[in-house]
Amino acid sequence: MLLSIIHGVFKTKQKTKSVLNDIELVREAKAGNQEVLNDLLFAFTPFMKKTASFICKRSIDKHDEEFSVAMNGFHEAVMAFNPDENASLKTFAHLIIKRRLIDFIRKEKTRKDNVALLYESESAEDHFLLEHQAMEFYSKEKIVAARREEMERFNELLKDYGLSFTELTKVSPKHVDTRKIAFQVAQIIAETTELNDYVKIHKRLPLKEIESLVEVSRKTLERHRKFVMAVVLLVNSDFVYIKEYVKGEYI
Q1: Rounded CA gap, 26 and 28, in Å?
Q2: Rounded to whole angstroms, what are the CA distances from 127 to 117, 131, 136, 204, 239?
Q3: pTM of structure
Q4: Is the pLDDT of residue 167 over 60?
């Protein structure tokens, strides 16, 4: 079983029937097969170390406490993974591991400089929560006006990146699983300082870096790059009402 899983993790793009895919393995692990779960944790150890190293901005090995946090995060991701909602195990696990490592760093109150960098993206989220609470006090007319104003501001922001609402309607992923992946990739970019800065400076996606982090092909990233870019801009914004339209798309 372990050899089959390892071969599956490092398999080429050409799939064979003899190798169990990630979804089948996750289903077995969630059903209580401890051997499969242990084998998954072993086979994905390089992925966990790479993800933890990227997030912590230093080399992480199996002796570091951060690796244990990453492993627990991967275990959590396996148990929470839903093939109907999360098309890529690695993409989903990357987000969960990142959240758990951030929680760990905050709790231990270490590497304060890194904490500041990792949480830059939280200001928009905090603002969103405050604005959401304040929505109750708006009159219907003010809410309509506020929504219109947000749409105008977002449209102007999109123009700065060579995008438009009309174009986004055409390039928006049609399949639910593809849309989920696009949102997850956008969330990773928005929550990672280096990748987010790259987008702001170059006004394009760091496709090479993203491809090395998540289980998404370069072809898929290229095809949906405009939609992903728009979501990155939205995640980083304070557009409360527009975010309401995509509520539930985030992890």
Answers
A1: 5
A2: 18, 6, 15, 26, 9
A3: 0.59
A4: yes
